[in-house]
Amino acid sequence: MKWFFFVYFYKMDLILNGVFFGIFISFLVGPAFFILIETSIKKGFKSAVFLDVGILLSDALYLIASLFIAEKINYWLYSVSYIKYIAGGIFLVIGGYSIFKNYLSLKTIPSSKEIKEVNTSSENIIIYPLQLIGKGFGLNAINPAVLVFWIAACTYATKELQIQGAGLLYYFGITIITLFSIDLLKIYFSSKLKNYLNPKNLCYLGIIVGCALVFFGITICFKEIKL
User: Fold this and answer.
1) Distance (Å, rounded) from C-alpha 84 to C-alpha 144?
2) Residue 32: per-residue pLDDT
3) If you average pLDDT over residues 164-173, what whole number do you get?
4) What's the pLDDT tens digit per position in 114-146?
5) Residue 110 three-state SS
6) Cα(17)–Cα(23) distance, integer angstroms
7) What are the two backbone dihedrals, phi and then psi, of residue 160, each rounded to the nearest 5 degrees?
8) Is the dihedral of CA 205, 118, 44, 190 positive or negative?
9) Residue 81: burial class (beta carbons within 10 Å; 0-12, 13-18, 19+)
10) Within a 13 Å sphere around the CA of 76, how many CA atoms are in the beta-carbon half?
11) pLDDT (0 to 100) of residue 114
């Protein structure tokens, strides 16, 4: 009976820690966050969900790598210093393209009277699941800060929380599930904003997201990668 209660409270502790950590991660703002919100508003709930699946898959991949080869990854990040410039450059290009594309779109938007007749519904948008998953995976994976974060998270779980073996899979599994659940809420409420936005507002949103990506690109280039 004592063994049963020990296992029960141990698992409950893992669940609570995993849930709290998932909630904490959900409030972190990075490049993927802005792309996710933009996609949910412009392309709808389903498109954003597939994008988020890609983001979480890259998180899971980095998490697994951090659990097994953290020391090698740390050495690689320190020795290959130019990786941050490549990642930052990619975000600069994506952000710059978004700003330029949406700025040009602003000039082609019809008058306010015609705007009311424009259909901004996402119902007719063709969804390509694999393309969206790949996009989410790539955007999150090219950010070295994501890898460093998961290495730090694994170190904290093993050193501070004293979680070992299967407990780590249980703990981080709960974390990912919690993160995905909160992301679904973000996506759902963001997608509802589309009903209140006209094409001009959507272009401004694209420019804001582009500026955010440029900012993160510059930050990655000048920030030292370390735990």
Assistant:
1) 7
2) 85
3) 84
4) 444 444 455 556 788 899 999 999 988 888 888
5) coil
6) 10
7) -90, -45
8) positive
9) exposed
10) 12
11) 44
